[in-house]
Amino acid sequence: MAVGSGTVGLRTVREANLGVVLRTIRESAPCSRAAVAAATGLNKTTVSSLVADLMARRLVRETGRTAQSGVGRPGVLLDLDDTSVAALGLEVNVDYLSVVAVDLVQRELTARHMPFDAREAGPQESARRIVAALREAAADPAVRGRTVVGAGIAVPGLVDAPSGIVRRAPNLGWSDFPLGGRADALGFPVRVDNDANLGAVAEYRVGSFAGTPDLVYVTGEVGIGAGVLTGGALLRGAGGFAGELGHLALDPGGPECSCGRRGCLEAMAGIGAILRDALPDLAPGRPLSGADVAALVDTAVGRAAAGDAVAVAALERAGNRLGRGLAALVNLVDPGLVLLGGYFVPMCPWLLPPCRTALAAGVFAPDAGGCRVEPSALGLSAAARGGAAGVIHALDSGALPLPEPADAP
Amino acid sequence: MAVGSGTVGLRTVREANLGVVLRTIRESAPCSRAAVAAATGLNKTTVSSLVADLMARRLVRETGRTAQSGVGRPGVLLDLDDTSVAALGLEVNVDYLSVVAVDLVQRELTARHMPFDAREAGPQESARRIVAALREAAADPAVRGRTVVGAGIAVPGLVDAPSGIVRRAPNLGWSDFPLGGRADALGFPVRVDNDANLGAVAEYRVGSFAGTPDLVYVTGEVGIGAGVLTGGALLRGAGGFAGELGHLALDPGGPECSCGRRGCLEAMAGIGAILRDALPDLAPGRPLSGADVAALVDTAVGRAAAGDAVAVAALERAGNRLGRGLAALVNLVDPGLVLLGGYFVPMCPWLLPPCRTALAAGVFAPDAGGCRVEPSALGLSAAARGGAAGVIHALDSGALPLPEPADAP
Fold first, then answer.
1. Which of A36, A62, A333, B283 is the most exposed place for a label (fewest CB within 10 A)?
2. Which CATH architecture fits A208-377?
3. CATH of segment(s) A5-80
């Protein structure tokens, strides 16, 4: 399709309107063209033209049923076409790669969880593995044949999202690494963001408390980060660095942290700290990496479930520390809901009671400011799911190019 | 003017459009009607009608000059009419009432600062004094003859702004007090909010860094609170309780705080704590109140300026503690700019160097996340100024009723 320079502005408006109609159908499907016109304020002719365009792009389809009520000709009902596109999400963390693909209605098409030692691999080799994993996901039988509209990559550290540069990820040993640029050859847009931010996006879009506009997602990995959602939008801060819950100073005399400071929350209640405390006979003194983590978490949870006093005490101590850290967050941000993610999830039976007690004790507003703390239902794929969910949301908001019509040259 | 129920919706749209035109003239004055039409997308006839309405309400006036350029008839230039309305702001704090009145262009018309012991007076008597102070301000020679369009009241504590109820203000000894309702008889709308929130509004609207969309204002009173602005909007949180910086746990073994906990930031670096530390011979052991505070602050600053080692060490210690508290805020919220207000301002020469050092040491992002810490230029009237500034802003945004046209019955 030839687009003269004079029509670029109009085309942009049309793309935005396509996004508006797509979002409206998502929210009200099954619905008629007339209902879309009523909901958007666009006139019926425009809506018909936009719907035709979305159908040509295989994002919308007619259900074959008609609207029951109303005057005039019965309207054919529309729905999202969930058969044509896919969005990918990937998380790289200290000990794994997690990859997911979702369709237009955020349904999971495929998911893979691979042990991976990102610290040992280093940034260049990790980038190669990340690109390969995204290629494999795009070639997965459940995805092949669909148009991949984009991918979101989650990294545990400070990320400059617009440029795709990982500024500082001490638990991976990376700094100032242009990860986004390494994925240019994939043929679809790729966006890099902080793992906690994408976890919060996942909770907002597809989690157990989906739609809650004020919430915090806390990563439970070797590192601890917080993704803060206020009014349904990520709180990024002036420099994009908000949510560094793991580096809250909890105890100036505490253990050394990967960031070089002492007594940070993640040095006292991150998964590495918990495992060293809960499994003094098994956990290595060195920083945890690679395949160690998942197996050790299983062992610690197993021992706690069997009543092992050392393991139980370690988890309860960590819960108390988490609660003290969350109290600072709740005093400052008042999120209403905190979801504990990652490896914290299987530990929640022991973490949550002391965590909630410490939170209530540390929050100035009565009754912990009304803030609930709950386990995430998204497990270790939360950040990857958030990466994919963000891509689908970008389609709706006109922030990503839509797939070309099927009959385009 | 009789308004049939069928036209209420239209009238609301018109009020909103009046606000849009008012804001546009504020931002671009002096400007022609044609320029307003171009900036708003409203057609020229509509703009002319709205401008006529705003002129009848004495919010806009013609300057008498005409636009120099452009085709067609030269446009008469418009400006805000700063002679007809006033907005009031009042802060009640542990040791004073501060009252200001501003005009439509946020210029200060009058300001009064009165020693007042709010804790000793109790909530009922304080409410009477607050209402009396607002009445006096409305009757001030600089205000009399203007239409008072509203007032904003600042309180150091948890405030439920929509209902006007002060939930918890431990430094005043108030809880669940319906302050907003006590001001109903004033004849203009009154809104109650947290003092730090209104300080942040004042910084954003009229402070030295006005227009900075991400900033935090920190109150420096007996209590410490933070008003957090992100993207130009107050971060209120799920329950409206965000910004409780003063009750961040700094040292579990620290001194007792007014909230009943130990080692909160305000118990270690609030003005009461600083004075007890800097003036061991003068500051009372009991909680500070009433007229004590201002005089003791003067003495402490005077001694520090004269090189008194005890006073200097106390201020520097407080600066370090403030920096540690701000590090938590910057790690979580990444505000880019923190303004220290109230009694912290005269102490800044001693507070700021150790504060900035502790901040840089405690923030995970490099270079303190790029966050600057500066003294507020608004002194003890910041929160009152913010209350008044919020009223003027509410006019522009259509959130407050505009004054009736001068020729209305």
1. A62
2. 2-Layer Sandwich (3.30)
3. 1.10.10.10
